[in-house]
Amino acid sequence: MTKASPSARERIVAGAADMISRRGLNATSIREMAKHARAPLGSTYHYFPEGKQQLATEAVRFTGEWTARRLREELTAGPVAGLRAFLALWRKIVVDSDFRAGCPVLAVSIEEPSSDETPAALAAAADVFAAWEGLLADSLREHGAEPDQAVQLATLIVAAVEGTVAMCRAKRSTQPLDHTSEQLQALILATIKE
Question: Rounded to an integer, what distance in angstroms lies between the CA atom of residue 173 and that of residue 175?
Answer without folding.
Answer: 5
